[in-house]
């Protein structure tokens, strides 16, 4: 006979109740685990999307370099950059990706979108050939730093007035060695005695030639800037280390423009140089530079022609400056930014291409991914809207 013990009965109930609770807990646990994995899968999926579009953008950069190199290898007039309306410089589609060539305008630093073009290195002052005086006239330059630049690149150990040779570098902590040889890159300026990022790179932290919001908010977000509503450029904007020209004699090394005694001489492309750069040349000043730039802007395509400078000035003459002017240059910066299919995976690489030889050659490459978004706030908004539309589909 079966005995129904009240205690056993209630025990069974308790057990069933406990099992139910455990099952509920386990289910709840499983649900949260599922949710957790679903969530992380979602992020993995998103991350994979970003990586995929990053690859697309990288491919686009390679394609953009090939396109630019092709343009430079087939110049109508060697030594002159093609007019920007004769090639695709912005929102260029390549496969599913899109690229832009980030360029420079004429002193127009406040804009929501950068200028898109290739950049002429001949528009800048040659850091290895500029005199101390020319360097001193560059914006925000100090006499000390100009002297330190000259001491850095000259082969002797004689300290220029206000300059710095090996001893000064030996007293640094940590110490470093002076180069006593020409600059190979403009970034090398950061190694010169007395260098600081604001002096060398200025407020343009993402190197796109326009004033982005973080570059005009003081210390609120990097870089430190003076929040004065205009973009204060660093030295890298005005100087170059390139200036080779094609040599007539076979077998001779390209060594730049040379004078009668065979020394290299500094020349600046008067058709592309900024006011700031033209101002520092002997016989020039801010007013003459400004007149040259505004006259030039009204001229239309210039090619290699420099005759126009004879009509450009209201008064004063350019006799002293003439020897520093040229209408041709052979090194160009190709600064490519790209995004993938859905506007994600932003990538950016800067190249310098030398066209002084038989074929264009890439002589410098710098990865600018870490400098972040560089296409300005308008394009940012457009791409965000585009991405939202994609999501809603
Ligand atoms: Ca020296
Ligand atoms: Ca900027
Ligand atoms: Ca800032
Ligand atoms: Ca500023």
How would you describe this structure to a colleague?
The chain has 393 residues and is of the alpha+beta class. It has a domain at 60-140 and 202-392. Helices cover 34% and strands 11% of the residues. It is built from 9 helices and 10 strands. The strands form 3 sheets. Strands 1, 2, 3, 8, 9 and 10 form a 6-stranded antiparallel beta sheet that branches. Strands 4-5 form a two-stranded parallel ribbon. A hairpin with a 7-residue loop joins strand 8 and strand 9 (347-354). The longest helix has 68 residues, at 6-73. It is elongated. It binds calcium ion (CA) (4 copies). One calcium ion binds next to loops.
Short description:
The chain is α+β, with helices and mostly antiparallel strands and 393 residues long. Helix content is 34%, strand content 11%.
How do the strands and helices of this protein lay out in sequence?
Elements (H helix, E strand, L loop, with lengths): L5 H68 L18 E3 L2 E5 L17 E2 L4 E2 L5 H5 L6 H11 L12 H5 L26 H5 L37 E2 L27 E2 L5 H5 L6 H12 L11 H4 L12 E2 L4 E9 L7 E8 L6 E7 L8 H17 L1
Parallel strand pairs: 4-5, 6-7
Antiparallel strand pairs: 1-2, 2-8, 3-8, 8-9, 9-10
Bound molecules: calcium ion (4 copies).
